[in-house]
Amino acid sequence: MRFEPKIVGFLCNWCSYTGADLAGTARIKYAPNIRSIRVMCSGRVDPAFVVKAFAEGADGVLIAGCHPGDCHYQEGNYKALRRYLLLKRILPEYGIEPERLRLEWIAASEGERFAQVVNEFTEQVRKLGPMNFKDSLFESMKNDVMIHEEHAPQGTGEQR
Amino acid sequence: MKLKLAIYWGAACGGCDVAILDTHEKILEIADMADIHLWPVAMDFKYAEVRAFKDKYLDATLFSGAIRNSENEELAKLLRRKSKAMIALGACAHTGGVPGLANMYTRGEILDRVYLRSESTINPEGTLPAEEFMTNSGELELPRFYNTVKALDQVVDVDYYIPGCPPASLQIYSALGLIADDMLPKKGSVIGAGDRALCDECARKKSEKTITKIYRTHEKLPDAETCFLEQGFICLGPATRSGCGSRCIKSWTPCRGCYGPLDDVKDQGIKMLGALASVLEPKDEKGINAILDTVVDPLRTVNRFSLASSMLRRKKT
Amino acid sequence: MKRIAIDPITRLEGHGKIMIFLNEQGAVDNAFLQIPELRGFEKFVEGLPVEEIPRVVTRICGV
């Protein structure tokens, strides 16, 4: 059974989500692994969204926004870029490959490009393998169990 | 009717207990309103006595310290059963605290360093702590050292949190007052602290933030009045709950987040990262990377007291 | 052999327990002090910036 990565995509409403829509209406095929979430601006993407996606089972996260200079809200995409670059430094400290997070500028007219990015990123994450965050956390805690349970007895005490 | 209290500690330093004692003469008021039935640092009650209590005999347990080994978990579960309310006291119980930084390493790496490699340890036989050990006279036990540090609410149901490292003494006193007067807010609340960020309490002057360089705290002298973050010092004020009296700020040192996150924030460190990235000035990749190069040890700075309760909990193994 | 546990030891900072083994005559055969705690500061301070160390290692003991 081939590993099918789960990719979560945060796409900005004005550019990249519209670009993804264009890929759809133009019937351009692209890997179905991406779960797209529309945000109004890539600057809306709180780093917590990215980390939560990984914690909840995503193998890869894509953030897509307007090209620099074209942000509908002027500077939101620069904020996204700063958060992205900071996250790229934090993820390896947590033991997560930074290549699992990707940021792309995709314009409303770039349907082809959206499809190409998704296909490329899906293959890249496929090569990295499953993140298996929940499983690895469970593994790392599986021996963390009480061994002298008589100290926390189940019966009700008699006194007082 | 006096309250029946237990005050206990997991992987702790005793600072929270000292914070209770630092209420000074108010300890007499506390002694008037409560009978303490377990407080290892100050009183000679034994675990066997607690095991003999009926369930919910105690009105409240103040539990400080993180869950680091099986004994911490056993006592947390024992006290949970024997108490009407379980209160996490201090940063370690609230979010894992400083001991949570051990989640960057594994159990094996820690035991190896402590018992085998540390420069001041002489252990030629390579003895490590054993969960069961047979002596000539009989068997001894030690708890299991866990691989991952946990906050209190990751092992038992917690009713209230009193945050801080340590919590300000007057805040502990006022929280005990809420218990005594039966005026506690809804279950799961943080008490003895504010509900706004530290910046709200901080007296330093804040204006537009566009940071061009991050400085380590020894790299330059801060000025007396301006916000630390604006001067380029990492300060976790924006992502930290108020209530401490901004004691670190008043000591000319930036906040490291010991009062934990604000309401509805799951991961204090990641929240701080988002805030930090928002106020940096550069807009191009090269400029951003240049300023990020000056941020040393980002993960353990933003998660200094909260690594164990962050979304990812520990370094992935 | 009978075993008496003093658990926990009290009125000091830290966790500890004392196990006393008595022989058939009721005399002490052996006694052990055990410290059932470890946090691993020696390991997790590795890699921290040196100017942050004072605020970390002060959490070894709050007393």
**Largest β-sheet summary of chain A:** 4 strands, parallel
Give helix and strand order of chain C, one letter per element, not per position. EEEHH
Structural domain count of chain A: 1
Question: Gap between N and C termini of chain A, in Å?
Answer: 61 Å
Tell me how many strands of chain C there are.
Answer: 3
Q: How many helices of chain A in DSSP terms?
A: 5
Strands in their spatial order, largest beta sheet of chain C = 1-2-3
**Helix- and strand-based class of chain A?**
alpha/beta
How large, in whole angstroms, is the Cα Rg of chain C? Answer: 18 Å
| Count of extended strands of chain A | 4
Q: How does the overall form of chain C come out from the CA principal axes?
A: elongated
Helix content of chain A: 40-55%
* End-to-end gap of chain C: 38 Å
Strand proportion of chain A, as a percent range, falls in: 5-15%
Reading the helices and strands of chain A in chain order gives: EHEHEHEHH
* SS summary, helix count of chain C: 2
Secondary-structure-based class of chain C equals: alpha+beta
What strand line-up does the widest sheet of chain A have?
A: 2-1-3-4
Description of the structure:
The complex is a heterotrimer of chains A (160), B (317) and C (63). By secondary structure, chain A is an alpha/beta fold. Chain A contains five helices and four strands, in the order E-H-E-H-E-H-E-H-H. The model of chain A has no long low-confidence stretch (mean pLDDT 93). In chain B, the strands form three sheets. A five-stranded parallel sheet of chain B has the order 2-1-3-5-9, with helices on both faces. In chain B, strands 4-8 form a two-stranded antiparallel sheet. The model of chain B has no long low-confidence stretch (mean pLDDT 96). Chain B has twelve helices and nine strands. Chain B is α/β, with parallel strands linked by helices and 317 residues long. Chain B folds into three domains: 131 residues, NADH:ubiquinone oxidoreductase-like, 20kDa subunit (Rossmann fold), CATH 3.40.50; 40 residues, no CATH class; 124 residues, no CATH class. Chain C is an alpha+beta fold and 63 residues long. Chain C contains two helices and three strands; from the N terminus they run βββαα. Chain C is elongated and about 60 Å long. Chain C starts with a strand and ends in a 6-residue tail after the last helix. In chain C, 19% of the residues are buried. Chains in contact: A-B, B-C. The interface between A and B is large, with 44 and 54 residues.
